[in-house]
Design brief:
- The chain has a single domain, classed as q2cbj1_9rhob like domain (Jelly Rolls).
- It has 271 residues and is of the alpha+beta class.
- The protein contains seven helices and 17 strands.
Amino acid sequence: MRLFGGNTVHQILDLTRYPIDQPTLTSALVEQCRRELARDGMFNLPGFVRPDAVQAMVDHVAPLAATDSFTHQREHNVYFLRSVADLAPDHPALTRFRTTNHTVCGDQLRDNLITRIYEWEPLQRFIAAVLEIPQLYPMEDPIARLNVMEYRPGEALNWHFDRSRYTTTLLLRAAEHGGEFEYRTDLRSDSDPNYEGVGRFLTGADPDCHVNPLEAGTLNVFAGKNTLHRVSTVQGSQSRLVGVFSYYDRPNVTFSDEERIGFYGRSTPRH
């Protein structure tokens, strides 16, 4: 089976370790990932993409990130809201942080191997099985569907909750130092925002923070809607590069022009 150019799927992905293309062999892996997701709020597939393929993706996308990415800078609280009903503006849960990253968008990645992996149907079926969702679909939006985020030295993705229940990422390059994925589980729920608990954590009164060490080639699926998390400040001489895969449980999802401009600085795809 060809995935990209002259390479077979097995040359790109470690399907011996993770046989997600073979339903008869996948059930044990699905159950293992479900247990990890229930316990940790995430699961990882270290080495899912083989090192040579990871390097090929980095060689392609790193120059784009350096010269043709959109720089996204914002001051925000963990909710990405100007205000929250019933919370005073100086409430600790509304502590403000700074996030800076550089985004390469889906329409810039059409010739990159990462797009072929994102669109590969067995991967979508596998993640859907773990999440116990009937089906997952790639996002229709040509700009937002797949992004590669670069965090340069001194930059970070600061504390926040995700809008979507699950996020799928593929780490392409780790930072030399810092740039670690940090998170706090069980801090809120759909029925209980736990503003006081969020405030205690953000002021340092709650030490229950976990670090998920990731290596290049790791696929990560994370339940970030109710788990506070961040990527710590990148240090050293090497930037952090991570692919973000946007899947939905319904087809034909797109962003509005306003959302595209807010996230990417433009509303029109490049052809």
